[in-house]
Amino acid sequence: MNLSRREQLTGRVFLIALIVVTLLPFVSMLSAALQPRGTVPSGLEWPSDPQWGNFADAFTAANMGALLRSSLLIVAGVVPVSVLIATMAGFGLGQLRVPGGRLVFGLFLLGLTLPFEAVVTPLYYQMQDLGLLNTRWAIILPLIGLYMPFAVFWMRAHFTNVPVELSEAARVDGSSTWQLFWRVQVPLARPAIASLTILMFLWTWNQFLLAIVLVDDATKRTMAGALGAFQGQWGTDLVLLCAGSLLILTPTLIVFLIFQRQFIKALIQGSVKG
Amino acid sequence: MTSALGSAPTGRDDSRARPTPTRAHRFRWARAAGTGWLYVLPALVMYAVFVLRPLVLTLQYSLYDWNGIGVARWVGLDNYLTVFTDSDLLKIIGNAIVLIVFFSFIPVALGLLVASMVRRITTGAFGTVVRTILFMPQVIPLVAAGIAWSWLLSSNGLVNQALRAVGLGGVARAWLGDFDTALPAVGVIGAWVLLGLCTILLVTGMSKIDPALYEAARLDGAGPVREFLAVTLPSLRQEIGVCLTVTIIAALASFDIVYISTSGGPGLQTTVPGLEIYRLAFSQRQVGLASALAVVLMLLVLACVLPIQRLSRGEKP
């Protein structure tokens, strides 16, 4: 690509400006979080005596240990099951091509653009009837259902592109559908499954609406839901609020930085296909 | 197609085991279809119980006057009539539409600008850093973005500090609390969240465009504007469609950011349908009206997204 020097330079300047704009909110939060408790911080000024202890205070105030555990439990309840049943359904629809599959797939597509707000009220009463309100199940079970349109769509797209001859060859070797699924198809689908797992993890961790509607106790919520409660409780103590928010962000950011390449791939593919 | 599993083996080793190929075929076919369904069933059941059933209930609730506890009274389409005539509810729907400008148009426009400047982000270290940082707003919860920006836009926040520094202290204010600026301020938060995603998607699309197209355009004497209109825009149609779809849904169905940064205030200035559904259903106990608004929101999303899908994918195979 023969771009002139000047064009390349302008491009870089734009990118760097974009990066600064993206990072500023985080830096500003950090500068506020390091001010002495009880002071009124202003936009961005590096404190003369950074109070790193604020993070310890926030850790206790936010009950971070319990929050982490709760979020992990919810993720553990949602992600493996969602990925498994979506992979199976994608295999059934895209590879086995069950009769009537088109109709079922159409039904799933119906939910692809559905705002969660549209079903949250009946879900509340449904959870009440099941006696699950204020338990983590009230977040876990609906989330699995709500993820199905995207997850099935995603996995079906993968399995549709796997040549049917592959299944037939496995058939000839005398393997059952179940063996075919686990030994041949799942290993081949690993990249698609990995991306899906990352997206489900992220969406679950960050789920807010279901958490505040269906669970009152912040220590039984997702990270995002807990952050909402933390803001409600400490909204006036800006220093602690900023410290707590950053703390609650840290696990996600760490996981993101470790799996950065996979995350970005998943997010790009996820939005393109969705 | 349908006999993906049944047809292939019949001619070979299967014929030894089974009496007649045709019957074996039919038997295998039926069994394969049956097993196939077993694979689809778990996902379908979860979807039916936790999405389709509530969806049908939302439709049903929307036709009743119900406080969530007592006896529901059939009111037909009255709730919908209220949604389309009540000035507050119309304003709330209008707010969501205004947010589209900020959540969608600004990120896509800026993203296109940056993309046409950058053309491609290198695969080297600089590129990785750029991609990683620009994706950070996508990874953190929207609630956190809301908290961070509430701080930035507050009276002592960074935005006002910057304004005072350049001598514009006169316009400094509590942006999220001001009647005139609250909605745009919420919009800015959404724009910040979605800008990086749009930019990266568009730059990724950009790097797939054949450079020969640009060379041809230059040989024809096309300036940067013509080049943009004739080469960039048509080639990025699909990516632009994706960005618009994702961001418009984010705008219309917004909840987290608004709940955290303004709770819909001041007045109803920043109240969006998602927040109003939550309030109507759980604070004001008007489940019927909340459900009607939910149905309208759902249709509004479809009305915006389906034409975009058709336009951006329509002519491409």
UniProtKB/TrEMBL annotation, chain A:
Coiled coil keyword on record: no
One Pfam short name: BPD_transp_1
GO biological process, any: transmembrane transport
Membrane topology, from the record: Multi-pass membrane protein
SUPFAM superfamilies: MetI-like
Major localization class: membrane
Entries under InterPro entries matching the protein: MetI-like, MetI-like_sf
Entry similarity comment: Belongs to the binding-protein-dependent transport system permease family.
Protein's name in the database: Sugar ABC transporter permease
Origin species: Micromonospora arida
From TrEMBL, chain B:
ABC transmembrane type-1 domain span: 93-308
Membrane topology annotation: Multi-pass membrane protein
CDD domains, A to Z: TM_PBP2
Residue intervals passing through the bilayer: 36-56, 92-117, 129-152, 182-203, 240-260, 287-308
Subcellular location: Cell membrane
Main location: membrane
Keywords of the record: Cell membrane, Membrane, Transmembrane, Transmembrane helix, Transport
Keyword NAD included in the entry's annotation: no
Keyword match Transport: yes
Gene3D superfamilies recorded: MetI-like
PANTHER family attached to this UniProt entry: ABC TRANSPORTER PERMEASE PROTEIN, INNER MEMBRANE ABC TRANSPORTER PERMEASE PROTEIN YCJO
Record's protein name: Sugar ABC transporter permease
Natural source organism: Micromonospora trifolii
